[in-house]
């Protein structure tokens, strides 16, 4: 894979084991499936996958990497919603958010529903998930996935995420803010991800991300938990966005991102001339050479009181 020199020069100073990072990007990304326990018990579903060669994902008991040549989209078990093809790193934000049964949860940019359906499993199809997406064209695929996987606790909305803070203040126990981003972390899966890559696009996206995060934080109850995540490497879309929220809200507290078996790197506290909130070391950067995944960024934020 030929990566732009500007991309390489930009990130070499901040990515540990940079040579291993590049090597990992050039390795094919194997398909990962998540077992859907809304449709059956784990062992019951596994018994139906007799021709699969599966490698367990160490930090999630319901996730498996497929080692042999299985085209999951053509399989009956996929059609029936028993399994869901989802990149392993994409499963981490819902696990860090850890929604509980009977809670009220917002997924502010939900389509196509990978994380929404995962959260429905974690909540055992109870409580309420508001699955919002501002793009009307993405609503139908979202609904189709929710239906195929048997979710019963999800309401779909088509609103600008930036407005939800005004519409539903202090309403949710937990909020997932998995924002639109520059997709830098997806190059293993999609080699075209960097075709339109530019620093100006990163800055444009960071403005939207800040607006979404501020709005999402307003929807959170006091004592509630929010997870902010992207599949990009850019500090402007990651640490800078979270730092923007922390510096304006004294009741926003970063908590450590930890998952047994998952290798993470700490968030950055500076980038070029920018300085970020010192607590950003508690955020997690996930690189492909560490867990054989895409790149991801995850921050966990708790709301301490009711000022905002």
TrEMBL record:
S-adenosyl-L-methionine binds at residues 109-115, 133, 178. The active site is at 231 (nucleophile). GO terms for molecular function: RNA binding; RNA methyltransferase activity; S-adenosylmethionine-dependent methyltransferase activity. The keyword Cytoplasm applies. Keywords: Cytoplasm, Methyltransferase, RNA-binding, S-adenosyl-L-methionine, Transferase. Pfam families: Methyltr_RsmB-F, Methyltr_RsmF_N. GO terms for biological process: RNA methylation; RNA processing. Residues 21-304 form the SAM-dependent MTase RsmB/NOP-type domain. NCBIfam families: nop2p. Belongs to the class I-like SAM-binding methyltransferase superfamily. RsmB/NOP family. PANTHER family: NCL1 YEAST -RELATED NOL1/NOP2/FMU SUN DOMAIN-CONTAINING (PTHR22808), RNA CYTOSINE-C(5)-METHYLTRANSFERASE NSUN2-RELATED (PTHR22808:SF1). This is RsmB/NOP family class I SAM-dependent RNA methyltransferase. It comes from candidate division WOR-3 bacterium.
